[in-house]
Amino acid sequence: MFVSDMDHDAPNTVLLLLGSNLGDRQDLLFQATKAISLRIGTITGASSLYETAPWGVTDQPPFLNQVLQVQTSLSPEVVLETALAIELALGRVRLQRWAARVIDIDILYFNDLITQQEKLTIPHPRLQDRRFTLIPLVEIAADWIHPVFMKSNKILLEDCEDKEMVTLVS
């Protein structure tokens, strides 16, 4: 885990999902985690790494996924802008939805905020449908209540019908 040198006065808790299925996946997650700690806030929780089946476009390599809990003083919009800048710096090119990627950083939750903007929806609109999101999320935030469904992440995982592969790596 990284501790940021930034003095954030961090009143906000954000949960981020990191994923990579191109290149040195583990190193890319490490680099993204380091950049998040330097540019977004203090990482206060990190799940294990999980290898997961691709979602949407299935003819691609498996992903490594991890969930981070971060304390930040940034707004949700600035967290999104910063996450996109980190993706770009690590080589992310957006050509097709759900395509293979060197890095992906998604905002799952931001406190108990519910918002739907043109480029930002919180909570993440599909987190309840995806085991590759819920399994690492439950590892570090099982009792976090989804502000739309009013269910804990643990209950969302129990209710999830997704049967895709999710394997603990480390």
Automatic annotation (TrEMBL):
Superkingdom classification of source: Bacteria
E.C. designation(s): 2.7.6.3
Metabolic or biological pathway: Cofactor biosynthesis; tetrahydrofolate biosynthesis; 2-amino-4-hydroxy-6-hydroxymethyl-7,8-dihydropteridine diphosphate from 7,8-dihydroneopterin triphosphate: step 4/4
Gene Ontology MF terms: 2-amino-4-hydroxy-6-hydroxymethyldihydropteridine diphosphokinase activity; ATP binding; kinase activity
Keywords, alphabetical: ATP-binding, Folate biosynthesis, Kinase, Nucleotide-binding, Transferase
7,8-dihydro-6-hydroxymethylpterin-pyrophosphokinase domain: residues covered: 97-108
SUPFAM superfamilies: 6-hydroxymethyl-7,8-dihydropterin pyrophosphokinase, HPPK
GO aspect biological process, one term: tetrahydrofolate biosynthetic process
Keyword Kinase part of the UniProt annotation: yes
Family (UniProt): Belongs to the HPPK family.
PANTHER family: 2-AMINO-4-HYDROXY-6-HYDROXYMETHYLDIHYDROPTERIDINE PYROPHOSPHOKINASE
Chain's role: Catalyzes the transfer of pyrophosphate from adenosine triphosphate (ATP) to 6-hydroxymethyl-7,8-dihydropterin, an enzymatic step in folate biosynthesis pathway.
Listed name of the protein: 2-amino-4-hydroxy-6-hydroxymethyldihydropteridine pyrophosphokinase
Organism: Dyadobacter jejuensis
Taxonomic path: Bacteria, Pseudomonadati, Bacteroidota, Cytophagia, Cytophagales
